[in-house]
Design a protein that fits this description.
alpha/beta, 6 helices, single chain, six-stranded mixed beta sheet, nine-stranded mixed beta sheet, globular, about 325 residues
């Protein structure tokens, strides 16, 4: 069984996506990140917060010597408000000092998290599902969470990891479990992971997109088929990732909306004139699509974003 959350009585469900906090030691930069998070939480009053990876930074050159304290401080603004929250791991959360299993156990010790460790027999920590129930008690939306790993496991393949075959099989199985064959239509779903898939670049090259692209799409160098799996499942209408701090665009590719978050952490790289913030996702009862906008560190809600239309846009 999946964990369940409920829509509000007004028929809405609001998700705030925080990504790439890169919390280290609680310095002034980290405290500025917390103030940003508090501003967003006050403005949006979300029903769920999703941290899409790199909540803390444990790279080998970091001054983060206490990852337990760092993580507790990083999520405190949400936990102290008793808001349900969930996490998927990024590539920097467990580079050193703490393992994924150890960090997962820390996460599960928090009262208001809805994160789950997920099946032990498949790759990664934190592959799990949350079901959203509408005001009539019906299944309204499903949320899939995936561990996209850290660095490549193969010496001759550089850079980043990818969602593995056993994770894809599990994901397809979850979709089948939640959408029985005798069901009239599939329950729509969203998917959350840290490292973007290669199709984010394909979408930028061929489709109208909204938002900004100021750095390469830093996906795994090999395509493990996550996007194809989502297409074949037929229920996922949107995906949300982080990882690339100065990309925040979204668009649609073959009927799936691929969305970047807006980097939240102050204590990490960014770009002048590109304020930190968060992505907001609004679900409405009876609708299979979703509304989304950015809430920036100055309090602005950004709904009108730059439009990118490549020459060969379809």
């Amino acid at each position: 069984m999946s964990r369940r959350l409920s829509y509000r009585q007004d028929g809405t469900f609001t998700i705030v996506q925080f990504t790439d906090l890169h919390w280290k030691t609680g310095t002034d930069a980290d405290q500025s990140t917390r103030k940003l998070m508090e501003l967003v939480l006050e403005a949006e009053n979300p029903d769920l917060v999703v941290f899409t990876g790199d909540v803390i930074y444990t790279g080998h050159n970091t001054d983060c010597e206490n990852p337990v304290q760092a993580f507790n401080e990083a999520v405190a603004a949400v936990e102290e408000r008793s808001i349900p929250w969930s996490v998927v791991f990024g590539n920097h959360d467990t580079e050193s000092l703490i393992t994924r299993k150890e960090l997962m156990q820390l996460i599960l010790s928090h009262q208001h998290t809805v994160t789950e460790a997920g099946p032990e027999e498949i790759y990664g920590e934190g592959n799990y599902t949350i079901e959203l129930i509408d005001t009539k008690g019906r299944s309204a939306f499903n949320l899939y969470f995936l561990d996209s790993g850290s660095t490549s496991p193969l010496e001759h393949v550089p850079y980043y990891n990818w969602v593995r075959r056993d994770q894809l099989n599990w994901l397809a199985g979850e979709s089948a479990r939640l959408n029985p064959a005798d069901q009239a239509e599939k329950v729509p779903a969203l998917a959350f992971f840290h490292i973007p898939v290669q199709e984010y670049q394909q979408m930028w090259d061929t489709q109208v997109c909204y938002g900004n692209k100021f750095e390469p799409v830093c996906s795994a160098p090999v395509n493990s088929g996550l996007f194809t799996t989502l297409l074949e499942m037929g229920d996922v209408v949107g995906t949300f990732c982080g990882h690339d701090h100065v990309n925040d665009y979204h668009g649609s590719l073959y009927g799936i909306r691929l969305c970047y978050g807006r980097a939240t952490g102050i204590n990490t790289y960014g770009r002048d004139g590109f304020p930190r913030g968060a992505r907001v996702i609004r679900l409405t009862e009876g609708e299979k699509d979703f509304a989304t906008w950015l809430r920036l560190e100055d309090g602005t809600a950004m709904t009108e974003q730059p439009v990118h239309q490549p020459e060969n846009a379809k």
